[in-house]
Amino acid sequence: MRTLKIFFIAVAAAMLLTSCYKRQFEPTFGNTTVEFVSPNQEIFFSGEYINIPIRMTEQASTGAQAVVEFTGGSVTMRDGSTHEAVEFTNDQAGYENGGDFIITSNTINIGAYDEEVDGEGLPTNNLEIRVPDYRNMQTLTLNFEIVSGNASGNTTTTLVVSQPTEVIIDGTWTIAGNAFTISQTDNGYEFTYNFQGVPLTFGAERDGNNLTIDTDGPRLEDLVIEQGGPAYDVDIICWVFDGQGIDPSNVVLTFTDAENLTVTNGMFMGFADPREDPSTGRYLGLIDPIAAGTPGTK
Fold it and tell me: Which of 104, 216, 228, 268 yields a CA-CA distance of 20 to 30 A from 61?
């Protein structure tokens, strides 16, 4: 019989109630010229979102806007097929035809020079690109141009994003203070968390340098939740944690090299509270929920 010695965190499968404050302001823009930081950017896929930096060409006391357009590109899929890159537009045609990538906004606001933020550099902001199907792409090439009248210098840029070469991911990793072991078997990969001497192992599938963890894990027997209370047999799950609630979908780990990884979409590991009616959606966590973007090291 195992008595649970750590503090449980209760998380509802439905969205939790939160409060936030959103600052409202009207930026002031001048005529300072803007440019891409680099005319060429070559990077590896590490998730859905890609940032292309754009900067002002001087340390101006007012902000500036850059309006950017996509001017063409290409996609090579992992199966070797190729096609012209297509932007997913937020209109009826976009929803009918789909696309390869999404531009969050074609208008980029760059704030005024701030010595504490920019130091000796130039004010910068990013053109954000989302590539939902990046796992199935081998190489994505995109060309962009700043078309606003204040463009100067590097007014065009070419972005080339490719899959990283596969790195060695086997071993013990530390994520948010928790130790996990990744091992390769004849049937794929396994992702293991050691709870009070009991290994809890989930199946996992590797795709390049991404590891997708099974949502359903092993059964943990004779677990005592409250000191002096009854023992329960519970089924352990590993679900996505979005910062507010949990979702029964696969956690994905992205490895940038043999020593570093990122939890791309958040992680919750726990079980349904056996003391409650299942319809309540109340879950107890074996570890603190891990936010999306949390790094891990070997």
Answer: 104
